[in-house]
Amino acid sequence: MTSLKPYLIRSIYEWIIDNNLTPHLLVDATHPHASLPKDYIEDSKIVLNMRPEAIQGLSLENTTIEFNARFNGQSMHIIAPVPAVKAIYAKENGKGMVFDENEDEDTPPPGNSPPARPHLRVVK
Question: What are phi and psi for residue 71, nearest 5 degrees?
Fold first, then answer.
């Protein structure tokens, strides 16, 4: 199955926009595939303003979130891998979703692992 996280990010983003609020994305800046403005990173994290008026070319895909934004007058292409996203929320009221840091989306939930060898024996 595909990860639920990108679908939740997209739906919460739309809910925030529909309510005329400002979507903010909290991203783990240590992710190796992230492309973020280094001057704005604090404690290995960055908060990105994703208000449509502040960004261009938004792409909310299943593996990455990408857009163009200006930082200190300089245009930059932002790449935030979905696994690096820690939260999406409305700036004005903090409503949104925080994602579990320990969630390993490639590991199936407990109890869904394939069964061990069958415990059958021949009966005569």
Answer: -130, 115
